[in-house]
Design goal:
Blueprint (H helix, E strand, L loop, with lengths): L1 H15 L9 H13 L5 E3 L2 E5 L9 E7 L18 E2 L2 E3 L3 H18 L8 E7 L10 H4 L8 E4 L7 E5 L1 E10 L3 E2 L8 H14 L13 E8 L6 E2 L2 E10 L5 H11 L3 E4 L7 E2 L5 H8 L4 E4 L12 E3 L14 E3 H16 L3
Parallel strand pairs: 3-6, 3-7, 7-17, 8-16
Antiparallel strand pairs: 1-2, 2-6, 4-5, 5-18, 8-15, 9-13, 9-14, 10-12, 11-13
Helix pairs in contact: 1-3, 1-8, 3-8
Length: 351
């Protein structure tokens, strides 16, 4: 176990040093392919995604997907470290993508490598190192799933402090337009879109979707952007607004959209309805196994590739979501060291 853990940390350092912004993951894909070659694992690629089946794959057995992503966001301006300099200090492994989601990715790759040659597993295993998660792109997990056999459930590797997210919020982003009449600021104007926006903001504030989730709570609506006008002495002709809606597992995105489109007091359009919420039955074998292992369950407010799949899934991995996309991102080395046996212990309770 120690040898493969050290190899996993070495792989993570290489991944950090290699630029892999969403849609530009070719080089990190090659690093992952090299891992599989070094461990004599047959693998396949599609676009910048890399995936492999366990050696004794049996079509008559259920199949578990192990998935995490190897793309990253752009580093923010707050970095004082070089985001591509992977170094360890005080037990922390620093670098862009170390926490989100490099630690989970190398841990799951290690777990798959350990179990790859096992003959008598009760389940099949597929590992998928996917691209374009951070951009919710079309060339990530959603383009690979049609190439795979039927998946019974998935473990999505994201930083959750190794707690098990059994539910995850969906997302709808709306663009709103409030139209008015442009004029000189010195003259009376009863059609000022900025003043008309008060009615819209009050409508958003009053939105109340009655169904409350056990793990995710209520549907959450947040205005995140307002833009209007360019000159101090001109009343603008329109105001534009962005509304962020985090959907719980009691609603589909279409249900939320139907209500909002019908009742909105202005022009409003969703950018996409593809990123739905998810929830796994608490009686599912993976959740029962988590209970037996004393793993805490919770509902996740953040989005992942769970929104791109239709089969049951949980989200779980080393690292802390609160560190994701932050300056001087890091993961504790100990978190990776502990995650690999924790994943295996969980799988052993169902495999």
């Amino acid at each position: 176990m120690k040898e493969i853990t050290n190899s996993a940390i070495s792989l993570l350092k290489k991944l950090i040093r290699t630029e892999s912004f969403s849609s530009n993951e070719e080089k990190t894909s090659l690093l992952i392919q090299n891992w599989f070659k070094q461990h004599n694992i047959n693998f396949k690629t599609y676009k910048n995604n890399v995936y492999a089946y366990n050696m004794f794959f049996d079509e008559n057995k259920p199949t578990i997907l192990l998935n995490s992503h190897h793309d990253t966001v752009m580093p923010n301006s707050g970095y004082t470290n070089d985001p591509f300099d992977s170094f360890i200090e005080d037990g922390k492994l620093y670098g862009l993508g170390s926490n989100d989601a490099g630690g989970a990715l190398v841990s799951l790759i290690s777990v798959f490598t350990i179990l790859y040659h096992k003959k008598n597993l009760n389940y099949n295993l597929i590992i998928l190192a996917s691209a374009e998660e951070e951009s919710s792109g079309d060339n990530g997990i959603s383009c690979v799933i049609p190439l795979l056999p039927k998946i019974d459930f998935a473990i999505i590797g994201e930083p959750t402090l190794m707690k098990m997210a059994v539910a995850e919020r969906g997302l709808i982003v709306y663009d709103l337009v409030i139209e008015g009449t442009a004029s000189h600021a010195a003259h009376e104007n009863n059609d000022n879109p900025i003043l008309k926006s008060i009615k819209v903001l009050n409508w958003i504030k009053s939105l109340n979707f009655l169904k409350k989730s056990n793990f995710l709570g209520e549907v959450k609506t947040t205005v995140t952007q307002i833009n209007s006008g360019s000159q101090h002495n001109v009343v603008p002709s329109k105001l534009e607004m962005v509304l962020d809606v985090r959907v719980n597992d009691c609603y589909t995105n279409k249900e939320i959209d139907d209500y909002i489109i019908k009742n909105a007091p202005c022009i409003i359009k969703a950018r996409s309805l593809d990123l739905n919420s998810s929830c796994i039955n608490i009686d599912h074998p993976i959740v029962v196994a988590a209970d037996k292992s004393g793993i805490e369950k919770y509902g996740s407010p953040t989005l992942s590739d769970q929104s791109k799949i239709s089969f049951p899934s949980i989200k779980m991995g080393p690292g802390d979501s609160k560190r994701s996309h932050t300056a001087n991102e890091f993961i504790y080395v100990k978190e990776i060291e502990n995650a690999i046996p924790q994943y295996i212990n969980l799988l052993n309770k169902i495999l």
